[in-house]
Design brief:
Elements (H helix, E strand, L loop, with lengths): L5 E3 L3 H25 L10 H29 L3 H5 L3 H16 L20 H26 L5 H6 L3 H26 L11 H4 L1 E3 L8
Antiparallel strand pairs: 1-2
């Protein structure tokens, strides 16, 4: 599939997954805040409503995370290539990309990384997604499953240190995940236009412009 001046960067299954995942995570964040601070937040009405919606969103996010693993690991078979940073990425690429974000972007210099279907993410993105998709997200999903099934999984809950420790860990992991979302949204605006990197998540196509600043 070709389109002059554009690259087909994001296939439809990935776009569908992305927006379902985004909606689920935003729902988890908002309901989680109300559950943690019910005396200050009442967006979803009754406390019970927030819990029900939080649990439902958690099940959806956990389920589509497994879909993501299956798609990239077994169907597309690009999980390692796209998401695992190489030695060169860690040794040189991360510093180069960080320098771009912190300084060169504001001087009008071009992005050192140009996204292609086989190389979508720059070294910093790879490191971040490695931590998120293979660290924080599985941990928050696993702890959520335990909290959702305390009685039948009582032995596992006790093995994790008990309900209080599990709740605290779940909250702290979720807070770390939430902080990443703000960084993710900000960096997504650092294209040749503020919406340049949002459009591929709707259409699949991203404009190829090697002279432009691209995040």
């Amino acid at each position: 599939m070709k389109r002059e001046g554009y690259v087909y960067l994001t296939p439809m299954p990935v776009r569908i997954w992305h927006w379902i995942n985004a909606l689920g995570i935003v729902t988890l964040c908002l309901t989680g805040i109300q559950i943690r601070f019910p005396e200050y937040i009442g967006v979803f009405g009754r406390y019970k409503n927030a819990i029900i919606l939080h649990n439902a969103a958690g099940i959806v996010v956990t389920g589509i995370y497994l879909v993501w693993l299956i798609y990239y690991g077994l169907i597309a078979r690009t999980l390692r290539k796209l998401y695992i940073p190489t030695f060169t990425d860690v040794k040189k690429g991360v510093f180069r990309q960080a320098t771009y974000y912190l300084y060169h972007y504001f001087t009008g210099a071009p992005n050192p990384h140009h996204s292609q279907p086989h190389d979508k993410f720059n070294p910093m993105q790879k490191v971040a997604y490695l931590a998120i998709m293979f660290g924080l997200l599985p941990l928050v999903c696993a702890s959520g499953v335990l909290l959702l099934n305390v009685a039948p999984l009582r032995d596992w809950v006790l093995m994790m240190g008990g309900i209080r420790l599990l709740v605290s860990a779940h909250f702290l992991i979720a807070a770390s995940f939430t902080s990443f979302l703000f960084v993710h949204l900000y960096l997504a605006t650092l294209g040749h236009t503020p919406l340049a990197h949002f459009k591929p998540m709707w259409t699949g196509w991203e404009k190829v412009d090697h002279e432009s600043d691209r995040a």
